[in-house]
Design brief:
Elements lengths: L10 E2 L1 H13 L4 E6 L6 H11 L4 E7 L1 H8 L8 H9 L6 E5 L5 H7 L3 E5 L9 H10 L2 E5 L7 H8 L12
Parallel strand pairs: 1-4, 2-3, 2-5, 3-4, 5-6
Length: 174
């Protein structure tokens, strides 16, 4: 089913993800879907993804394509290519599947995959979700969860640190 070439078997196209989704439905598996740019994978991403993975049987990550990241973040982004970002995410033991999507929102993919659970980090709320995504989530009956955000971690902060303009935060106790 892997059509992404040399990358691990957890990296899928959207059509392959849809086929895999049907297998999960047949086995009564609850899919947790999240999405993002994951431009510079950091502790905040890992923390949120790990929390999200505990909400269902499998965590599926929809990754913004390079062109989508540029539309959302500006012409100097992404730092890492979509294939590099997909590879890093797929190497996380609590991530079951990664696919790349082209748009700036995930509305169509939500309608295709019909996840039971959708997760965003705590810097989002129902009001801040993309309206098209929220409508798609309502149509498929997905539960919407917001997982805690690890304060002080962001790609922007990492870039600022590299440029010498930020002090690193302390990690919280588990």
């Amino acid at each position: 089913m892997n059509t992404r070439g040399k990358f691990p078997p957890k990296c899928f196209t959207i059509s392959d993800a849809c086929k895999a989704r049907q297998e999960k439905v047949n086995h009564n598996k609850k899919i947790v879907l999240t999405n993002g740019c994951f431009d510079l994978l950091h502790a905040g991403h890992i923390y949120s993804l790990e929390k999200a993975s505990k909400l269902g049987d499998e965590l599926w990550v929809a990754l913004n394509s390079d062109s989508s990241v540029r539309s959302l973040k500006g012409k100097t982004r992404p730092i890492y290519s979509e294939n590099e970002r997909a590879y890093m995410l797929s190497c996380l033991k609590f991530v079951s599947l990664v696919f790349i999507f082209e748009d700036t929102h995930l509305a169509n993919e939500i309608l295709e995959l019909k996840p039971e659970i959708y997760v965003k980090s705590g810097d989002y709320s129902l009001e801040k979700l993309n309206e098209e995504e929220r409508i798609s989530l309502e149509k498929v009956g997905a539960e919407i969860h917001f997982v805690p955000l690890l304060d002080g971690f962001s790609t922007t902060n990492i870039i600022n640190t590299i440029q010498g303009t930020r002090i690193s935060p302390n990690l919280p106790d588990k």
